[in-house]
Design brief:
Helix content is about 30%, strand content about 20%. The chain has 15 helices and 22 strands. The strands form six sheets. A seven-stranded mixed β-sheet has the order 5-4-3-6-22-21-20, sandwiched between helices. Strands 8-16-9-10-12-11 form a six-stranded parallel β-sheet. A three-stranded antiparallel β-sheet has the order 13-14-15, with no helix packed on it. β20 and β21 form a beta hairpin.
Length: about 500
Amino acid sequence: MFRKAFPIVRSVKVARNCSGRHASTTASTVQPRICIVGAGPAGFYTAQYILKHLDNSSIDIVEKLPVPFGLVRFGVAPDHPEVKNVINTFTKTAENPRVRFLGNLSLGKDFTLEELRQRYHAVLLTYGAEQDNTLNIPNETLKNVLSAREFVAWYNGLPGYENLNPDLSGKSLTLLGQGNVAVDVARIVLSSIDELKKTDITEYALEALSRSQIETVHLVGRRGPLQAAFTIKELREMLKLSTCSTEWRGDDFDHVEESIPNLPRPRKRITELMLKSLSEQQQGQSKSTVSRRFQPVFFRSPINIVGHGKVEAVEYVVNRLADGRAIPTDQRETIVTDLVCRSIGYRAISMDNHINFDERKGCVNNAGGRVLKRNLTGSDQTIDDIEDKYETGLYASGWLATGPTGVILTTMNNSFAVADLVCRDFKNNVIRMNGSRPGLDLSGKPYVSWNGWKAIDAEEMRLGAAKGKPREKLICVKTMLQIASNASK
């Protein structure tokens, strides 16, 4: 299907001048050497496309953690194993003889961007977005105010978050934001422990959740049901959850039904599902025997977190909609809660001073994947008028380039498009193949090879099997490195 979308690059041949009396001008093939920084979905999809469309290319995938797969491993909910099946495709890419996985190596610490650009013909930055957006409201630093990203990292076993210890002793959790990540957190907190035991959720999270006293989860959004960011799959899972009932506010759905005929099909389906659930609730068909409740709340923006020492409530301004935008009114509402998780998006960080980074947007300055130069010369009209505007051989894809938008499929399409740019730039001699490149100098660096990862993987599977789980993730980096060191490079 992608052959129709992107041209295929057959090979890269360049002229090489040989030194000495008998200099040859015969064209010979130089192997395009490419470094991809980040072993998440964007990195692997980019590598997959380049392998297929750039003959003889050699790719190093460099990752700061000892283990690959990024958000697929540490972001996808443990009860969504089908989403993780993409790991099988990524594994095939990693085991291609033209690819090297180099784990436990970090940009800005073990090597610089300038070093990479000298040692490779092309460098792709795909290391994602790992910081939270903040609300910038009073008392946001109170105890029991976390981010959904931290909570997900905790139950998914991202090294460094094992000691987060969220306080689950209260009766209610408030999630600020209505995207799929927020719904994932709600579902994990409200799910049956017996069901979670069958997943790869970390053992320490499972134990903490088994002691959880949370009975009510509020899912708060600044706009209305027609703008809810969660998808129908996530909503359907919440509605089917046997351990809790979903409780809507009827007033939030005023005039919603009359809008249905004009909605695009995906939005129409999810709106109809919400209205069906609301109707069942109003007819007394909700799950009255369960003690846990999932309560979506619309048209509310948090303006203050209330508490002394720890969270006690959240104060909201009531919004009205105007052209799809949330406009604050004079009304206020305060909802009592014991734990707050903000889920209002991510932002990337700059890992190297030489990266042309937009701090305001939280992503690399790029145009369609090509990284822009810091200082542009020429026309002062628009970026399209400037000729020499790109850093030759430097690209970005995934959330680092686009911001945190979409799902894995979105990242795949973006990564394929950026990879196609790379292939075309090689083919059109934009990237000049004036000699081979040595690749990263690994001497003295304790990197993890793909065989090292396979040893870690095998140990996790063994530990999981002993507990009736698909795997038990290792959390300690030192332990990972010990296991990997015993495997052949």
